[in-house]
Amino acid sequence: MIRKLTLSTILVSLFSLLLSTVVYATPTITGRNAILVDYKTGEVLHEYNAHKAAYPASTTKILTAVLALEKLHLDEVVTVDYDIHVPGVSMHLIKGESFTVKELIQAILIRSANDAAELLAVHISGSVDEFSKLMNSRARELGARNSNFTNPHGMPDSNHTTTAFDLAMITRHAMSFALFREIVSTVNLKFEPTEQTPNMRNYRNTNRFLWGKGDRNLMNYYGQYVDIKYDLIDGVKTGFTNSAGQCLVTSAVKDEHRLISVVLGATGTNVYTDSRSLIDYGYINYKLVQIAGSELYVTDVAILNSESAAIPLVTEKSLHKVLSKNVNTYEIDKKITVFEDVTAPINRGDILGRIAYSHNDKFLGAINLVAGESAIVKLTFWDKNGRNINYLLAFFSIFVIWKIFVEYIRNKRRRRKMLFSKKSKITNKN
User: Are residues 285 and 301 in the same domain?
Assistant: First the structure.
């Protein structure tokens, strides 16, 4: 009986392992659009309709928050000076209330407050239309090439579209702000009563990845019901409208390796299942590797006309790459190219070569090689002694001029004496 149980346990374990391998070979995505990218490098690890236009719903507020962080001071006070009426989720702002920029950013990212998003937009640009122009301009700068934002909150508009890829690029930038990371990982938010709103405002983050535990927060994850809460995840933003479906941008960190996933157009808790599938797929199959560090010594380069026969070449910057877990970093090939006939003068940091990395003939990346130190032109005999010779020439010139001047004075005196002697003789004769 014990042997049968042991054998049965082994078979179940092997089957589970095999199933897990099959599952993570290609994540199962139920949403209409999805992508998984590496935060540091921006590499796409998995995608599904990632460049197809979609409605972003409240994930729009990621870009709104970015612009607020870039354009405003966090302690700047914003007063509601008009009646705000935006459908959907809000913090029910009333004319006359005042909040800091930081509080409004918290409200749009944690509460997903549409009215707070509009208030920030109007405060920054003067109107929603002008703010939309700013959104589109900044989105393109961040690498979002196929987006068209028409409002700061994501309420339905047939022209308000983006892509999973574009949202991932915007979120990469957003997560570079320490305050943004702090806010999107915060579970609860409280606002003290105001004169217009006497009750405390208490909000819980709309992202159940941060807190969803218990019977009401379960999801079917590859045949097993598990809590939605997932400790690897530290943000980012949910979204929902009838036209957009369930949307979720997710950030996860494991062993200092951050991944970002985007799922658009899902239904129910499938948005969490899809997102976790992508995140787990990334960590199971890939690793982030620093191929080269910044200012890493690589080789030396000869300098033809320098006092230094050679100077060291170092990497201009670090290079990171996401590699498959089965890649051995010792198998990475390097190809070093150094400029020929390098001559001084050379300043530290000048580009003098290039180093390229590959694995099994697949190009991984390249970095410039720069001078690790400066090199001056080698001095010739004349260069080395020219200064002293110039000093001697100057001294000799002064000496000659002085001698000429002395001789001139002497000659002048002699003439005077001769003239005086002649006058004396004439006087004596008379």
Answer: no
- Count of structural domains, the chain: 3
Residue 287, token pair as written in the block: 């690793």
pLDDT one-digit tens code per residue, 272-293:
999 999 999 999 999 999 999 9
CA quadruple 52, 54, 60, 62: dihedral positive or negative?
negative
Mean of pLDDT values over 72-79: 98
Contacts with 50 (C-beta within 8 Å, 6 or more apart), sequence order: 33, 34, 35, 44, 163, 164, 165, 168, 262
Neighbour-count burial of 85, counting CB atoms closer than 10 A to its CB (0-12 exposed, 13-18 middle, 19+ buried): exposed
Which strand (E) or helix (H) includes residue 98? strand 98-100
* CA atoms of 327 and 360, how far apart (whole Å): 10
Domain hosting residue 301, numbered range: 297-371
Cα–Cα distance between 79 and 89 in angstroms, integer? 20
Q: Please state, in angstroms and rounded to a whole number, the distance separating the CA atoms of residues 333 and 331.
A: 6
Residue 66 lies in a domain: yes
In this structure, are 258 and 387 located in the same domain? no
23-37, 171-185, 275-289, 353-367: segment of lowest average pLDDT: 23-37
The answer to whether 153 touches 86, Cβ cutoff 8 Å, is: yes
Alpha helices in 142-231 (DSSP H): 164-174, 178-184
Give the lowest-confidence range in 114-123, 145-154, 285-294, 395-404.
395-404
Q: Does residue 358 share a domain with residue 247? A: no
Do 153 and 260 belong together in one domain? yes
Hey, how many other C-beta atoms are within 10 angstroms of the C-beta on 175? 21
Q: For residues 50 and 28, what is the distance between their CA atoms, to the nearest angstrom?
A: 15
- 319 & 394 share domain: no
Provide the pLDDT for residue 13: 47
- 97 and 42 within one domain: yes
DSSP notation for 336-394: EEE-SS--S-B-TT-EEEEEEEEETTEEEEEEEEEESS-BPBPP-HHHHHHHHHHHHHH
Q: Which residue has the tokens 């000429």?
A: 404
**Residue type present at position 378:** K
Distance CA 151, CA 161 (A): 10
Q: Is residue 253 part of a domain?
A: yes
CA gap 249, 275 in Å, rounded = 8
